[in-house]
Amino acid sequence: MAHVGRVSMLVVEIFRGLKEVRIWVPRAFDEAWNIGVGSLFIVLLVSAFAGGVTAYQAGYQFTGSLPYYVVGTLVVESIVLELGPVLVGLILAGRIGARYAAELGTMRVTEQIDALESLGRSPASHLIIPRVVAGLVMIPVLVVFADIVGVLAGLWAAKQVLPLTTADFTYGAQYFWHSFDAYYSLIKAFFFAAAITIIPCYMGFTTGQGAEGVGRSTTGAVVSSSVIILLLDVVLAKVLLNS
User: Fold this and answer.
1) Tens digit of pLDDT at every position of the chain (243 positions)
2) 162: helix, coil or strand?
3) Phi and psi for 52 in degrees, rounded to 5?
4) Virtual CA dihedral for 217, 220, 221, 225, nearest 10 degrees?
5) Which of 41, 104, 134, 172 has the smallest C-beta neighbourhood within 10 Å, fewest atoms?
6) Taking the domains of the chain in order of start, what are their residue ranges?
């Protein structure tokens, strides 16, 4: 409960600091570039493997029992609804979350944040808001790229193991498609982005006990973000898909 209260206070500070646009906007562009370009390769690689494996397993399980176009349904729905957002979230929790916690933790133990506060500057405007805003903008974009690449990789993999045409795959993808599916993927990505950015920033901001504390904060940020992502995955599926 103490952590929940401190995170809530941090979120309040974030909203208060949004008025200092000239401070956090330039820094947010730099962070957005680091998140988007720096994470694009690993995101596309993971999504391509996920799409290919899903197609191979579908071809193994459904051969001779279901129409081949069902593979298109399974690949598209699996990638867009689940594998795309969740795998990207977990990968970025390790890549971005660890980096944010380590950076802010090091700044805390070396008293750089204290120096910023002594000058009357808001640490939230300079350090936290740029990271959070960049994550909320760029992570959903990365999820969109991951969904597209995952589906294309699934199509290619399915055609390698099954007598499946592109028309069959497209028919299966459209047959069970709901227009809300794309919005659901983006909603999950937005909530995951909040967890990936806010929790590591909080862990790094409250770091203590020198280098040991930085290591503990970094590990805690990755673990906590990953657990929250999985929890949000269940909650959002219940609220948005089964309501």
Assistant:
1) 887 888 888 888 888 878 888 888 888 898 899 888 888 999 999 999 998 888 888 777 766 667 777 888 888 888 998 888 999 999 999 889 888 888 888 888 887 877 877 877 778 788 888 999 999 999 999 999 999 999 999 889 888 878 888 888 888 888 888 888 889 999 999 999 999 998 988 888 888 777 788 888 888 889 999 999 999 999 998 988 876
2) coil
3) -65, -45
4) -170
5) 41
6) 30-241
Alpha-carbon distance of 84 to 88, in angstroms, equals 6
Q: How far is CA 93 from CA 7, 40, 157, in A?
A: 17, 14, 28
Residue 27, judged by CB atoms within 10 A of its CB (0-12, 13-18, 19+), counts as middle
Q: Which amino acid is at 82?
A: E
Please give the angle made by the CA atoms of 144, 146 and 152, to the nearest 5 degrees: 105
Comparing CA positions, the residue from 42, 58, 54 lying closest to residue 151 is: 54
Q: Comparing C-alpha atoms, which of 169, 161, 154, 147 is closest to residue 70?
A: 169
Q: Report how far residue 54's alpha carbon sits from residue 61's, in angstroms, rounded to the nearest whole number.
A: 11
CA atoms within 13 A on the CB side of 184: 25
Structural Rg of the chain based on CA atoms: 21
Q: How far is it, in rounded angstroms, from Cα 231 to Cα 226? A: 9
CA distance 151 to 80: 8
